[in-house]
Each structure stands twice: as structure tokens, then as C-alpha cells.
Amino acid sequence: MSALLTFLGGSAFRMVWGEVSAFIKNRQDHAQELEMIKIQAEIEAAKHERLQDALKVQHSMGIQTIQVQAEADIARIDAESHNRSAEAAITHKSGVLWVDGWNAAIRPAAATIVILLWVLALNRAGFVMSDFDKELVGVILGFFFANRALSFRGK
Questions:
Q1: What pLDDT score was predicted for residue 85?
Q2: Residue 26 DSSP class
Q3: Taking residues 53-80, what's their average pLDDT?
Q4: How far apart are CA 133 and CA 115, in angstroms?
Q5: What are phi and psi of 130, to 5 degrees?
Q6: Measured between alpha carbons, how far is 1 from 6 in angstroms, rounded to an integer?
Q7: Per residue in 79-132, pLDDT tens?
Q8: Which pLDDT band holds residue 37 (cuts at 50, 70, 90)?
């Protein structure tokens, strides 16, 4: 009989202990799973909050970009308007004959004097052009031909 009680007691104890330990383990697993779900929910909430903040910042930056572009366009239009009015004022005759003659003669006279001085310097050198002279001729021709081509395009 003691053998039977020992057998049943050991088997029953093992069975009861197995069920108790399984219950405790399942309870811990369940608690851990709930904790993981809560943490994931907090992470998702924080991620959503960051996304909302990022969208708000992008939205405000987009508005600021549009405002800056609008201000730049207004400034460009104002500058073009002032440039056109300045160009018109430069070409406008004053009505005083000698002032208009002086204004018309300054640039051509200065260019003529510089060309004469350069030709005199070339004459002294036996009309042998240095590298500087060749570059100068290239720049002058490029300026006048480019200026003419750009003026036909309206630029």
C-alpha cells in the first residue's frame, strides 16, 4: 500500500506540479505578450506623433518656400522695371544740345583714344602683336559681335 501511495503520490504530485508550472508559465507568457503589445502601441503612437509633426513642418516649410519665391519674383520684377526705366532715362535726351552732344561723344571718344594709343604702341613694336594684343583683339571683337547679336535677341 505504501508503494501504491508513493507511486500515486509521485505521479499525482508530478501531474499537479506540471499543471501548476504550466499555468504559471502561461500566465507569465500572457503578461509578457500584453506588455509587448502595450510597448508596440506606445511606439506606434510616438511614430504617428513624429509623422504628424514632420507633416506640419513640411507644410509650414512649403508655405514659407512659396512666400520666399513670391517675394523673389516681386523683387525680380521690380528690378527689371527699374532697369527698364533706367535704360529709358539713359537714352532720353535732355534737350540741351551741348549736354546731349557730350553724352553721345564720351564713349566713342574714349574708345577712339584708346584704339589710337594701342595702334601707336603696335607701331612702335613694328606691328608685331604680343599675346596680350591678340587676347585684347579677341575680347574686343567678341564684345562687339556678342553685343550686337544679343541686342537683336532683345537681351
A1: 80
A2: H
A3: 83
A4: 12
A5: -80, 175
A6: 8
A7: 888 888 877 776 777 788 887 787 778 888 888 898 899 999 999 999 998 898
A8: very high
- Enter the pTM of the model: 0.35
Buried b (16+ CB within 10 A) or exposed e, 97-124: eeeeeeeeeeeeeeeeeeeeeeeeeeee
Q: Which residue has the higher pLDDT, 15 or 27?
A: 27
DSSP result, 120-154? HHHHHTTT---HHHHHHHHHHHHHHHHHHHHHHHT
Residues of the domain holding 80 = 1-92
Does residue 103 form part of some domain? no
Q: Is residue 45 part of a domain?
A: yes
Amino acid at 7: F
Q: Where are the beta strands (DSSP E) in the chain?
A: none
Is residue 111 in some structural domain? Answer: no
Q: Which three cell numbers stand for residue 11?
A: 505521479
C-alpha cell at 35: 506588455
- As to burial, measured by CB atoms within 10 angstroms (0-12 exposed, 13-18 middle, 19+ buried), residue 133 is middle
Q: Which residue type sits at 64? A: Q
- Single-letter amino acid, residue 71: E
Split into its structural domains, the chain has a count of 1
- Amino acid letter for position 18: G
